[in-house]
Amino acid sequence: MAKTSAIEKNKRRAKLAKQYANKRARLKAIANDKSLPPEEQFAARLKLAELPRNSSKVRIRNRCEMTGRPRAFYRKFKLSRVTLRELASTGQIPGMTKSSW
């Protein structure tokens, strides 16, 4: 089980990223638009830098929904490999069986 503080910090980051997503996307579009004057692009980049760092989507860490483990994460199941194996072995994931050949 991961530290509760790390899990909560990640949740706060996800909440902030969702809150600032529209504003960040708008500013990024202005900053990357080559048809606008350089001064306007630079102003947009400055405003983008003023936003909270944790509002950036890249700072969110994929974590297992059950244990909070940050590594060996399967996006399709939102679980870590350890949890996925345990649940699959007990038959709690429909359609998943242990392979044998």
TrEMBL record:
Pfam family, one: Ribosomal_S14
Keywords (A to Z) from UniProt: Ribonucleoprotein, Ribosomal protein, RNA-binding, rRNA-binding
Family, similarity comment: Belongs to the universal ribosomal protein uS14 family.
Encoding gene per record: rpsN
Function: Binds 16S rRNA, required for the assembly of 30S particles and may also be responsible for determining the conformation of the 16S rRNA at the A site.
GO biological process: translation
An annotated GO cellular component: cytoplasm
GO molecular function terms noted in the UniProt entry: rRNA binding; structural constituent of ribosome
PANTHER family hit by this protein: 30S RIBOSOMAL PROTEIN S14, SMALL RIBOSOMAL SUBUNIT PROTEIN US14M
Organism the protein comes from: Azospirillum humicireducens
Protein name (record): Small ribosomal subunit protein uS14
Subunit text: Part of the 30S ribosomal subunit. Contacts proteins S3 and S10.
